[in-house]
Design goal:
Elements: H1 2-5, H2 22-30, E1 35-38, H3 44-57, E2 62-67, H4 73-82, E3 87-91, H5 96-104, E4 108-113, H6 116-121, E5 128-131, E6 148-156, E7 161-172, E8 177-182
Parallel strand pairs: 1-2, 2-3, 3-4, 4-5, 5-6
Antiparallel strand pairs: 6-7, 7-8
């Protein structure tokens, strides 16, 4: 994560709607982590101004998140591409078009996935993948071109829910194998 995104620390601010505001996004990036803004509540015109605000507060890498099933998501992503946002993070949709366009200007892509099926369907040459599902389900070898991903989440039992710990998966070069480490 640090090398791929140009940050000093492996810390990523989650793009929380109404919580990860431009000043917080910029502060995390300024502290050498990766700040992420969530575009869910904005119009494309607002996104353009928000991206400019974040850039006025930091010259370090930051990310914008898009939930592709929601209104304005594609339009907001197109605005982020037009503004050449360094890192685009998406969830719940097919974003090969977005990742391809980002790569054309040197941008990176992050997929946030919720199920094993989404992991396997993620397209594009992603720089990172975040999984927020059962870590053990996505432990097996992945057939997607990613470098690293992290996973954490809840594992459901018969009665109630128990937390499964964070885990990380690292793809080994061209060999296509994944190593699993639970922390």
């Amino acid at each position: 994560m640090m090398e791929v995104f140009g940050v000093k620390y492996p810390i990523m601010l989650t793009g929380m709607a109404f919580g990860s505001l431009p000043k917080l996004v910029a502060a995390v990036s300024e502290a050498d982590g990766l700040g992420t803004y969530n575009s869910v509540a904005n119009t494309p015109e607002e996104m353009k101004e928000i991206i400019k605000e974040i850039r006025s507060l930091t010259d370090k890498p930051f990310s914008v998140n898009f939930t592709l099933l929601l209104p304005n998501a594609r339009e907001n992503a197109e605005m982020a591409l037009e503004e050449k946002v360094p890192i685009l993070n998406y969830a719940l949709g097919k974003a090969d078009w977005m990742i391809k366009a980002a790569h054309e200007y040197g941008g990176k892509g992050i997929a946030t996935v919720t199920t094993e099926r989404h992991v396997l369907k993620a397209e594009g040459k992603l720089s990172m993948m975040k999984a927020v599902s059962s870590a053990m389900k996505v432990k097996k070898e992945l057939d997607v071109p990613i470098h690293k991903m992290s996973a954490s989440g809840l594992k459901q039992k018969d009665r109630g829910v128990t937390r499964s710990g964070p885990a990380s998966f690292e793809r080994s070069g061209d060999q296509g194998s994944c190593r699993y480490r639970q922390s």
